[in-house]
Please model this.
Amino acid sequence: MSDFDADVIVIGGGIIGVAVAAALKGQSVLVIDSGSPKFGTSSANAGHIVVSHATPFAAPGMVGQGLRSLLARDGAFALSPRLPLSGLTWLARFTAHCTARNAETLTPGILSLLRNSATGVRTLGLPTSTYPIWEVFTGNGSRNRAAHEVEHMRGLGIDAAHIDPNLVSEAEPLLLPRNMSVVELREDFGVDPQLLWETLKATNEQATFLNNRTVTAIDPSADGVRVHLSSTTLNAPKLVIAAGAWTPDLTKLLGVSLPIIAAKGYSITVPDLATNVQHPMIFADEKFVVNPLDNSLRISARFELTRASDRTIDPKRIKHTYAQAKRVVTLPPLPDSLDSLSPWTGVRPASADGAPYIGPLKGMPNVVVAAGHGMTGTSSAMGTADLVARYIRGGSISTSELALTPNR
Ligand SMILES: Cc1cc2nc3c(=O)[nH]c(=O)nc-3n(C[C@H](O)[C@H](O)[C@H](O)COP(=O)(O)OP(=O)(O)OC[C@H]3O[C@@H](n4cnc5c(N)ncnc54)[C@H](O)[C@@H]3O)c2cc1C
Model:
């Protein structure tokens, strides 16, 4: 194969795709997106950079939590009527992966992605939250659960501390008193995810972005990869597939089935707040998160398994999320027009064992996958991109990073 169109082609222009393009600075990169990347899930998410989320989503206790949520009215975890049949296979695989062994195998690799990313984001010089993220436990047993969380974090080597209850209301006067226990996750912080995406997109001056292009076929060979679009064919020595929840559609073109399902989440953004909360926060019991952005407050919630094309916005969900938030945070009354809250949905690419798939596909050394980041794609984008760049340029890969291979 000769006359390459670029050094690397990336399919998918979400946060992972643009982070990969940025990490390949010095090389020419073509980023192809079937829509405009706004269609993906990277633009209006919660914007938490969470080193604390190093344990894979498939971990002991998750099946019980999921079942309780399914049985509860308005639970955070839900199955959409639009869920394709493959969703049931995914659920069975996820259930089988909720073991201590899965957590032990995958945590070190995830932690290294998250730490590298957090350091990377800090070096970009973007505005970040003034304070670290707080994880808030409410109701019965909140103190014990918070203590357990601190112990768990410290066991992983992550900096976390229990906040003196007397200091909580002083530091966050907008929190409503509800027998709260707060853990400060000291390595975690908030960013504006759209700003992070734009900054990474602008990093590599040799990156070109092609929107609204549909990939119809992929031909890998020993010296490169041909990517067929409806109107043309492009080729490069290396291809990166970073198409979020749509990644299985692309790997299917190569005969590879990757267990990634779309997990829809909602965000709303309360505008024009004269007084805002100070810390980005995770409400462990009410199952939503907040991030103060300028004079607005982003509130995000819900994990609904569905199909990747499902971007419907259910007004009931918006109202429920707002009501949940109002139970613990002082907010203005729900506005008459929900549009003023900029309701948004995104589909998290959720892998069946709760960790992203990063690395070349078996027997196809020129095709590298970077997908399946679930709830932490923004948090782990720069670490993922650094790992992808090492696969492409032939750098060293640690054992914990090898555990994230898509061939596991
Ligand atoms: C409500 C909500 C809150 C969240 N909060 C956080 C948070 O606080 N912190 C965090 O770390 N993560 C968070 N996430 C998760 C995070 O948003 C995702 O993990 C991340 O955006 C995934 O990025 P991606 O680049 O893999 O996928 P996407 O952003 O979905 O990008 C994939 C791109 O691929 C394109 N594409 C699809 N098919 C094709 C094709 N055939 N050809 C070419 N292009 C294609 C799509 O158009 C899209 O632009 C949240 C998600 C949601 C929904």
